[in-house]
Amino acid sequence: MKSQCSKWNAPQKLAGLVALLLGYAVLATGSARADLPSNDLVKALQSGGYVVYMRHTKTNKTEEDLDHTNLSNCSTQRNLSEEGREQARVIGDAFKTLKIKVNSVVTSPYCRAKDTSSIAFGGAEVDMVLGYLSHQPEVQRPISMASINRMLGTPPPNGTINILVSHTENLKQTTGIWPKDSGVMHIFKPKSDGGYTHVGKIDPGEWVDLVQLNAPEEERSCLWILCW
Fold it and tell me: Which residues contact 64 (CB under 8 A, 6 or more apart)?
């Protein structure tokens, strides 16, 4: 997948009014919850029809975001740690082994999110609405939240899933669901009315075991005497 940046496109004169109206839309949409066990979630992803909101994987806590205006400069940002890169590799390998078909990956413009997408899924489209919410212009925030709501409620083509790679705050402010752990995936089922249901989450440390439980025996990365 090729990476490309999108620009803010809200007309300045109408930004305040649009933000207000879309803010109401965000509050009205909401999401029901029906949390499933992780093993059932894998089977759901394999069947397709879901949207995954993923927090970027682990970062280097000694680094800080110093410049929110030039997000192409990774040297002024908090970036993935080696552990975070390994997390992304494990997740990407699990998706391949489990034959989870990905229709699209859309990512925050921050380097840690783009790198997560690149390592795990081979790249992504960059969308500014997924950028760290509190550092977006104030009038843009409700517009971004409404866009995220729309993404979560848009069904992918049959047999595939869509993935959004972003930050904790964006999902928490939009849905009230906090993706606390780095690399966690929250999974949503779009509904026919444009809404969605939160069906559960998969933590990054679960993928090795989930591969063992769900992958074809010949594709499991373990000795046969240790597999079940």
Answer: 78
Strand extents, DSSP E, 28-184: 32-33, 50-55, 102-107, 125-126, 161-166
For the segment 201-221, the average pLDDT, to the nearest whole number, is: 86
Number of structural domains the chain divides into: 1
| Residue at token pair 């999110």 | 113
Instruction: Answer for the pair 127, 166: CB distance below 8 angstroms, yes or no.
Output: no
Tokens encoding 120: 């795990």
CATH assignment of the domain containing 110: 3.40.50.1240
| Spatial separation of the C-alpha atoms in residues 114 and 109, rounded to whole Å | 6
List pLDDT tens digits, range 107-157. Answer: 999 999 999 999 999 999 999 999 999 999 999 999 999 999 999 999 999
Tokens representing 17 are 């009014």
Which helix (H) or strand (E) segment holds residue 20: the answer is helix 15-29
3-class secondary structure, 6: coil
